[in-house]
Write a structure and sequence with these properties.
Strand order of the largest sheet of chain A: 1-4
Radius of gyration of chain B: 22 Å
GO cellular component, one term (chain B): plasma membrane
CATH class of one domain in chain A: Mainly Alpha
Largest sheet of chain B: 2 strands, antiparallel
Pfam family, one (chain B): BPD_transp_2
Oligomer: heterotrimer
Distance between the termini of chain B: 46 Å
Structural class of chain A: mainly alpha
Structural class of chain B: mainly alpha
Chains: A mainly alpha (385), B mainly alpha (342), C alpha/beta (447)
Order of helices and strands of chain B: HHEEHHHHEEHHHHHHHH
CATH architecture of one domain in chain A: Orthogonal Bundle
Main location (chain B): membrane
Keywords (chain B): Amino-acid transport, Cell membrane, Membrane, Transmembrane, Transmembrane helix, Transport
Strand content of chain A: under 5%
InterPro entries (chain B): ABC_transp_permease, BCAA_transport_permease
Largest sheet of chain A: 2 strands, antiparallel
Largest interface: A-C, 50 and 63 residues
Chain lengths: 385, 342, 447
């Protein structure tokens, strides 16, 4: 589904500009939500990037991959190895991670894209599960298994030593030419990459290449009959989204230099699918929004405990308060998965186009109420593709 | 030789479980066209039917013994199942056979759950894209398992097989091996026979009844069957109920082998999808064949001899087989063209 | 601005009004720009602990029990309830009015038993909620990952249930402490008991969970049983969460082994033990001896999951509620009175860790991590359930009695599943800290 405002280059620039402001100002406007702490904002940016990349494959071509977590994992491991061998500068780590995950995605895409539909999904799932299982066990020399791959003081870190910054007494933190990539600087570093990723995504959506990808989703058979081979296009989209995932994985390690195997589990792949659909698959901003909502719920809902609930509902009379707390307790803290599951069901049942579609419906309703029904074509949501 | 025979036996009971789960899954695929990610949850619910029945039969009368105190100062509780105090030895027998007895309870419960799921949710998703079906059923699976967790906790709840079937049978002796060489747990043999029985039953039902004929016709060509004026909707509900029962029974009978916990459905979900895809989407015999094939291959891959040549092969064998088969036979072992593609 | 240096959740919410304040948020690694003595120094009248336990996933029940213990510890520290082990702990400087005059409050997080998620939730508690100390967890991978995070951030980590040698071995950190015992101690404690019950001439077959904890345990048990004269026939790695272990158990039948050692924990242990018993291994005769199964790391919660199959099977635990010393009795009493059932070993170690941390702060006279580290290192204490205990300074590992237990043949209640066979004295399980390598490094105040 396309966004309903003017699809002109100017319109895009305005939207991208707004997006930039919103992202960079996150530390301010997230405060009232209790989410303005660096770790969560970093996660917003990183998983936003992951979902935006996934959307290029799934949103545009309709190929539902259940294996993207594998690329996230490859990116993470590559980044940590780059820290270990080269040094704590994030730039080479990001480059290497993108290259490695791109290569890995090319290989898996080359095989998986021979099939379509659910067969494709299962193939990607199979590859991701194999990567996860091996990373957890046999490949432990490379991945450090259960504990996760970390940077140690005894690692070579060639570039760091060349710069005379080899011996570190304190913690090993990634730094960009002297600036430590954690906390707020870490968030802004991720945010810059998010903006770059978003910009590329804008360009792809509006390019002839993007149009071709949408055509694959609409009717691949017809394209084939007209003599166009769709495989190279799908393959390119697959590799691009794999590179986004690799970049996201590397950024996870830039902000926290540890790569764990569970990043590659199929549930992690499922998470990015959910983010994309929750926000609105095929829309430009939807995946970012979906990623934000899921990471926010994960961090905030899971943190509520009975004590916190009692504080929140303290204004209620005692008897009612106890009842409210015990009901609410089912959905937060250890029950936050239940909230998550219900959220998915509600969104998919009532808003299959995701939150973006919900917003459009509301804005359309508002416009109609104001009696400005003349410009119907610009306010009506367009049918899904 | 004996090692290989044992691994084949292992593959048979494992394969039985895979086949039963995949059978229901593919039935729903084939007739309703729905990718049901909550199918694993049905398996889990079946297992918890057994747990509930066991807890219900074993409902205990609690008497307080004021002469004995626990370390924290409350009277010690003396517990005795009501059923034993009422029925004596029959009560013990019932408790002992609680898992097989649960089958009786599981059938109506699973039918009911299937009906509610289909009428309440699935029917609205027949025409929706597969991605949305996957998501909504995945959400449902999470909700179901979290409810079970709230009720029963996260720890596994052991269910014993009946005393008589608690240990292993020396079946090697029957075919001329030395005693003790090929022993196999009674319950696993029963599980294999049970799965064969259920699979046979489902096939007979589909082959021999008019209802089954319509369902098979619906799997081949839904539109035409609809045009013939047959109320396919009602049958869909029944098919879904049937699939739920098959998955539920697989769960009930599996509890003595694998102490059930709330997450067991998810553990089997990915695997059962792989089985279905390897067998060929929408092909019932394919699902059964693939279930047994993967079960046996998984057993062989775990042998030390194999692992020493290919380290870690037991971790990935299932997925590896899936990849190879999908590349060599695009639609799985027995799949037909055009099912669930695109 | 001072408010923003040490944000409590409330503080952050209030600060939402101040535009631009977000840019002044302290960050956990680059806080040297600010001149606080140490990270998250409490300024109000409360001090915040962070309880990071598995709330979802396979160890959720264990996590819930840990959380119960922490809540009880907080109560006791704040002078509510009957005081529990504060009545038995020696030496003791805590007086039941909080720590250093501040009331203890806490925040919770879900580790999900994943290193990533555990670090994320620990970070949240440090960055957002201003936690001074992180504690809890139910797996070694998580413990090691969170421990190094706390080291880098500059807060104290008091490990929960973690049994790998690595936690205080090659991955030890100056800011991290472990009260729980480890795989080496399990081996050292079990070996003599196994010898006296099963003899010195045995052939062992290991099934090992294929990840780091499994490997360290396999190695430790192998070393100590081979020192007895046992032979290791085979050691097979099984995938984590395999569910059905039959394909790994059948080769044991005809391998000539007469002991099966299950280096599994949690669901894996429940499943592999249940299935091994069904294959008739417990009733089998090999080499003219009764076949034996050993589960080196036991937990009562897991024994509950395996039901009757644990009967007569040896293993080791850190602590058990049936112990009769004053400390254990006091703890079981207040835990049982609060919740209606006895605590698990996970609950015990977490409760003790919380108390030990509070006590160390009180003794040090500060919450500053380096001060707390000094107070805990080589600290000797008693009355906490395991007899006289030493927090060894060289590797931050507690040395205390280890329990060898056996599945109870005639349990008197649903909690009475394990029977203590022997309390192995600390000397027998003490080792040279050098054997596992690793460096503690410098302590980090985070400022």
């Amino acid at each position: 589904m396309t966004t309903n405002t003017r699809e002109t280059p100017q319109g895009d620039m305005v939207r991208f500009g707004l997006f930039t402001v919103v992202i960079l100002a996150m530390p301010i406007w997230l405060m009232p939500f209790g989410a303005a702490y660096p770790d969560l904002m970093q996660k917003f940016a990183i998983y936003g990037l992951f979902a935006i990349g996934f959307n290029i494959l799934f949103g545009l071509t309709g190929y539902l991959s259940f294996g993207h977590a594998a690329f996230l994992g490859v990116g993470s491991y590559t980044a940590v190895w780059s820290f270990k061998l080269l040094g704590m500068n994030p730039i080479p780590a990001l480059l290497l991670a993108v290259v490695m995950s791109g290569a890995f995605a090319w290989l898996i895409g080359f095989i998986s894209l021979r099939r379509t539909g659910i067969y494709f999904s299962i193939l990607t799932l199979a590859f991701a599960q194999m990567s996860y299982n091996l990373a957890y066990s046999v490949l432990t020399p490379i991945t450090n298994g259960e504990t996760g791959l970390r940077v140690l003081n005894s690692d070579p870190r060639v570039l760091d030593h060349m710069m005379g910054a080899g011996e570190v007494d304190g913690p090993l933190v990634t730094n960009l030419f002297g600036m430590e990539m954690s906390g707020l600087p870490g968030f802004y570093f991720c945010a810059v990459w998010l903006l770059i990723g978003m910009y590329i995504s804008f360009r792809i959506f509006r390019s002839p290449f993007g149009l071709m990808l949408r055509a694959i989703k609409t009717n691949q058979t017809r394209l084939n009959y007209t003599g166009i081979s769709t495989r190279p296009y799908a393959q390119t989209a697959f590799v691009i989204s794999g590179m986004y995932a690799g970049l996201a994985g590397a950024l996870l390690c830039v902000t926290d230099p540890l790569a764990g195997a569970e990043r590659m589990q199929w549930t992690a792949s499922g998470e990015v699918v959910l983010m994309t659909i929750l926000g609105g698959a095929g829309t430009l901003l939807g995946p970012m929004l979906g990623a934000g909502i899921i990471k926010y719920s994960e961090n905030i809902f899971s943190a509520f405990n009975e004590q916190a609930l009692h504080e929140i509902f303290a204004f209620l009379p005692d008897g009612i308060e106890a009842a409210v707390v015990s009901v609410a307790g089912l959905f937060v803290g250890e029950g936050w998965h239940l909230t998550l599951g219900l959220l998915f069901m509600l969104i998919v049942i009532f808003l299959p186009g995701g939150v973006i579609e919900g917003g459009q419906r509301i804005s359309a309703a508002v416009t109609r109420l104001r009696g400005g029904g003349s410009g119907g074509s610009s306010t009506q949501p367009q049918p899904a593709e | 030789m004996d090692a290989i025979l044992l691994q084949i036996l292992n593959g048979l009971d494992k394969g039985g479980a895979y086949a039963l789960i995949a059978l229901g899954l593919t039935l729903v695929f084939g007739t309703l066209g729905v990718v049901n990610f909550a199918h694993g949850a049905l398996f889990m619910l079946g297992a918890f039917c057994a747990v509930s029945v066991n807890q219900f039969i074993g409902l205990e009368q609690v008497r307080l013994d004021p002469d004995n105190l626990t370390p924290w100062g409350t009277p010690v509780e003396i517990r005795e199942p009501y059923i034993v105090s009422w029925l004596g030895d029959t009560g013990h027998l019932l408790l002992d056979y609680s898992v097989p007895v649960s089958i009786l309870a599981a059938i109506p419960v699973m039918i009911l759950i299937g009906f509610i799921m289909e009428r309440g949710l699935i029917q609205f998703f027949y025409k929706r894209p597969h991605a949305e079906q996957i998501l909504v059923t995945f959400g449902l699976a999470i909700v179901l398992q979290e409810i079970i967790k709230t009720w029963f906790g996260a720890n596994p709840l052991p269910q014993s097989p009946p005393d008589a079937m608690r240990t292993a049978a020396d079946i090697g002796v029957l075919v001329g091996f030395d005693p003790g060489q090929i022993v196999y747990p009674y319950w696993r043999l029963i599980y294999f026979l049970f799965s064969a029985l259920v699979i046979g039953g489902v096939f007979a039902f589909l082959q021999l009844t008019t209802f089954g004929m319509v369902v098979r016709a619906g799997m081949a060509d839904r539109e035409t069957v609809g045009l013939l004026g047959i109320d396919i909707e009602k049958r869909f509900t029944l098919v879904f109920g049937l699939a739920a029962v098959v998955a539920g029974l697989a769960g009930v009978m599996y509890t003595p082998i694998l102490p059930p916990d709330y997450h067991m459905g998810m553990d089997f979900l990915v695997l059962s999808f792989v089985v279905v895809v390897v067998g060929g989407m929408g092909s019932l015999p394919g699902a059964v064949a693939a279930g047994f094939l993967l079960g046996i291959l998984q057993s062989f891959a775990s042998m030390t001899e194999v692992k020493s040549i290919l380290p870690g092969i037991d971790q990935i064998i299932i997925y590896l087989v899936a990849v190879v088969i999908l590349l060599v036979r695009p639609r799985g072992l027995m799949g037909r063209k055009g099912v669930m593609e695109g | 601005m001072v408010d923003f240096l040490t944000p409590s959740r409330r503080g952050v919410l209030k600060g939402g009004a101040a535009v631009g304040a977000g840019l002044a948020m302290p960050t956990i690694f680059s806080s040297q720009a600010w001149s606080a003595e140490y990270l998250n120094k409490p300024t109000g009248d409360t001090v915040t602990f962070g309880f990071n336990v598995p709330q979802t996933g396979a160890y959720a029940d264990e996590g819930a029990d840990e959380l119960r213990a922490y809540q009880l510890a907080v109560k006791h520290l704040n002078g509510e309830g009957d005081g529990g082990m504060l009545n038995t702990m020696k030496p003791l400087v805590l007086s039941g009015n909080g720590v250093l005059g501040k009331k203890v409050s806490f925040v919770t997080g879900d580790t999900q038993t994943k290193s990533d998620a555990a670090r994320a939730s620990a970070k949240r508690m440090i960055e957002k909620d201003g936690a001074l100390m992180i504690t809890g967890g139910s797996s070694s991978g998580v413990a090691i990952a969170v421990q190094s995070l706390c080291q880098e951030a500059g807060v104290i980590f008091m490990a929960g249930l973690t049994h790998s040698n690595d936690t205080t071995g090659k991955d030890k950190r100056r800011n991290g402490f472990r009260h729980f015992f480890n795989a080496y101690m399990s081996g050292a404690a079990l070996a003599p008991v196994l010898k006296s019950n099963y003899g010195a001439d045995r052939k062992a077959y290991h099934l090992t969970a294929d990840y780091t904890w499994g490997w360290t345990q396999e190695e430790s048990i192998k070393n100590s049983t081979e020192a007895l004269g046992w032979e290791t026939v085979n050691a097979v790695r099984t995938p984590l969460g395999a569910g059905d272990f039959s394909q790994y158990i059948t080769p044991v039948l005809n391998s000539g082994a007469d002991v099966l050692i299950l280096n599994h924990y949690g669901k894996d242990m429940v499943n592999s033990l249940t299935q091994a018993v069904q294959f008739g291994l417990r009733d089998k005769q090999v080499n003219g001896k009764d076949f034996a199964i050993v589960v080196p790391l036991y937990s009562r919660l897991m024994a509950q999951g395996a039901g009757e199959n644990v009967k007569g099977i040896f293993g080791s635990t850190n602590w058990h509620w049936s112990l009769q010393d004053e400390g254990s009795k006091a703890f079981v009493k207040s835990f049982g009175a609060e919740y209606g059932f006895p605590p698990s070993q996970a609950a015990h170690t977490c409760y003790v860790q919380a108390l030990l941390y509070a006590d160390a702060c009180e003794r040090a006279g500060t919450f500053m991590p380096c001060g707390v580290v000094d107070a805990l290192e080589d600290h000797e204490f008693d009355g906490m359930g395991n007899g006289p205990t030493l927090y060894r300074g060289a590797d931050h590992q507690c040395f205390k009695k280890v329990l060898v237990v056996k599945g109870n043949e005639n349990p008197s209640s649903q909690f009475d599943l394990l029977e203590v066979v022997q309390e192995v004295p600390a000397e027998q399980v003490t080792y040279d800290p050098a054997i596992f390598g690793g460096e503690l490094g410098e302590c980090n105040n985070g400022a």
